[in-house]
Description:
By secondary structure, the protein is of the alpha/beta class. It has 21 helices and 20 strands. It has a 6-stranded mixed sheet with strand order 6-7-8-3-9-10, sandwiched between helices. The chain has a 6-stranded mixed sheet with strand order 16-17-18-13-19-20, with helices on both faces. The chain has a 4-stranded antiparallel sheet with strand order 2-1-4-5, covered by helices on one side. The relative contact order is 0.10.
Amino acid sequence: MLDTPHQPLLDIRDLTVEFATRRGTVTAVRNIDVSVGKGETLGIVGESGSGKSVTSFAVMRILDRAGRIAEGSITFSSIDLRAASDGDMADMRGCEMSMIFQNPRAALNPIRKVGHQIEDVLLRHVQAVSADAKEKAIDILKQMRIARPEERYHAYPFELSGGMCQRIVIAIALACKPQLLIADEPTTGLGVTTQKAVMELVVEITHKRGMSTILITHDLGLAAAYCDRVVVMQKGKVVETAPSDVIFKAPAHAYTRKLMRATPRPGATLRDLLDEEGTSASPPPHAPQIDGRPLLKIDNLVKEYPRQGVTKSMVQLFRRGAPAAEELPFRAVDGISFEIMRGQSVGLVGESGCGKSTTSMMAMRLLDPTSGSIMLDDEDIGAIPARAFANLPARKRIQMVFQDPTDSLNPRFTAMRAIADPILRLGDIKGRDALRARCEELAQLVGLPRHLIDRFPHQLSGGQKARVGIARAIALNPELVILDEPTAALDVSVQAIVLNLLDELKARLGMSYLFVSHDLHVVRLLCDHVIVMRSGRIVEQGSAEQVLEAPQDDYTRELIAAIPHPPV
Length: 568
């Protein structure tokens, strides 16, 4: 059994962290107490801005120049980290304590082979010498269960999937067998089965080595599944600390109950996710009638990419003969067919790399298919080159909400200019006053306060930027909106509000949705019909109730079983 927090490996007392800004001093963390026992896995949960990551950066002493520890103590294995010199901290980081950062691709050097990056840590902390560094790096890759480790040793980060990059980051963090591992949102953006595999790998290695772990997350299901104790943070303060089995079954603080309520779970409805403040007085929207006429019909759709060094003429030659498998072009989408009826929400689910985004990009006409048809009513829009389609009237009928609410907005555009962009390109509204009136109408429709439309993206929260993206997508009154993981980067309470907003807009405007996601709980809440993809093919499709309650395919059952959720 793990040691109790009365004998902590890490002890944080009365910690206050401040940042100097142009508008004065901002207190990001205020007088918090956190402890981690030897061999314990501690979860720190809360929404963006609650101080989770700042706390971990303070422990690692990697706050940026504007940040400073104003008060409190941080003791690690009887060492006062506040008093430790920069040199001592450099020796401890990676060796005694290490960190898995949120974005694995950003954490890796893009122009350096991943094997060499593992060697760097081993050599820095004298865990290897030049003669055996490669052998030890490959052995660590094997421990991370990375297929073909000798080959992956020579790979660059851009040649690996998101899940593979995450394993490399974990390999670097664990290379020197530290006593404490801090995992900051280690599974953000990963598919559910990849997430499960990554977390189980971390748990197995840390338990085997008797390590302590801090898991920072806004996913309460993840914390419930893998943590011994949970600390809940809100606005820089700790509001609740308790064993995970206690905190999820009987949360004491109102904020913890709010997070629990907003977490998608079996049996919940969209309205159930809202707290008392987020619930409007209006009744739940009535779903638009699905009239049975296909709005979008995709038939035998294929998208191929030449493998490295394969030319188009070689692809044509391959089709006449019987080439070796490694010479064939790569099929990202392999002969799929489905329909979206008017007024229908269709969920497209599957793991990263299954072809979901490629399919949605072809349906959106941002990417040309290799073969197959994309029928919008009676017109084969798949036969129209993507560049030409951008200027056609049919472009108004299909719009898209992109996955990342920050990256999908031009940082030089105000919220109003972003919302106005499709109107300026394809709309018929003339005059500055009329355009502003329409943008204000759209902002009101998506719940964005009118005074915010003159702000730039960096001046808006994640939820506000998501609303700008939705307002932009519905500006031309489209018939079909493609939603590519629109809530993946949002906190659970903001996600709950955005999902309810999407449901209300669909009912009010009579739109159809193609909802691309790897979160089956979210799909269950929003979609009428579900399509499950794997390796470019559809393995199962049917009504949401049929597919998610009684799945027929083993892969669908595997996806459902891999979803972590707090105990009911």
